[in-house]
Amino acid sequence: MKAISSLIPQLPELRKQTNQPAVRPAVTDAQRQEIRELLADAGFDAVNQGVYDTLITYGSREVAHANTKGLFLTGPAGIGKTLGVSILAAKFGWPVLPVADVVSAFLEVSEADFQNFISAMDFWGVPRMIVLDDLGVEPVPVNRFGTAFNVLADVLDVRYRLFLRYGVRTIVTTNLGDAELVKRYGFRMDDRLNQMFDFAAVTGESRRK
Ligand SMILES: Nc1ncnc2c1ncn2[C@@H]1O[C@H](COP(=O)(O)OP(=O)(O)O)[C@@H](O)[C@H]1O
Ligand SMILES: [Mg+2]
User: Among residues 9, 33, 182, 188, which is most buried (max CB within 10 A)?
Assistant: First the structure.
């Protein structure tokens, strides 16, 4: 399989330092409380409060902090990963990209536009945090002009390089376990995932009706 990174050799360059937005200030106790209430209003119980509190903390360190990783949320289907992340994402302005939409974009837009899409560059040309929702449900391989791609493996690779270069982080939700991740994205990627993500297990019974 050909890698998207070979198709897109250039990662975006950051604009001049002076143009960069300020690092987001730390989340205040009042903001934290407000988000907890939003979650409670949506019917979330306290079981996963630790996970979502961690996620709230991520809202305060979106850009280029040393030694802060992205967050990889794992857990069975129907327990509110997508809902919970979306509530926070709306609050903090993180784009939530269902992986199926990422694959559609890959098939439908130019390489340059796809690169911008997965870099989620802001007004200043600075790549941003994104949420990749439901990693593992996308088809593999995907054929584009007769070439086979593992689209999300390549997207994770690009996000890894953004992480190394700019400290830009990614949030992932998935039902996949370790073995399935290795099988789908390979050993090398598994190593990189450990480097670029903290892992958190969301628990509970399916709430899907
Ligand atoms: N903890 C929860 N409290 C209330 N509703 C929930 C909870 N978890 C999930 N739901 C509901 O169940 C459905 C599935 O949730 P979703 O976020 O898609 O789960 P996941 O992403 O973990 O598969 C949604 O309709 C959501 O509104
Ligand atoms: Mg989901």
Answer: 182
Report the nearest-CA residue for atom 9 of ligand 1.
Answer: 80
Ligand 1 near 73 CB (within 6 A):
no
Domain enclosing residue 148, as ranges: 28-201
The Cα–Cα gap between 145 and 122 comes to: 30
Residue 19 within a domain: no
Count the helices and strands in the chain (H runs, E runs): 9, 7
In which band, very low, low, confident or very high, does the pLDDT at 67 lie, cut at 50, 70 and 90? low
How many structural domains is the chain composed of?
1
Ligand with an atom nearest the CA of residue 85: 1
User: Is position 34 within any domain?
Assistant: yes
Question: pLDDT at residue 20 above 50?
Answer: no
Q: Is the pTM of this model over 0.90?
A: no
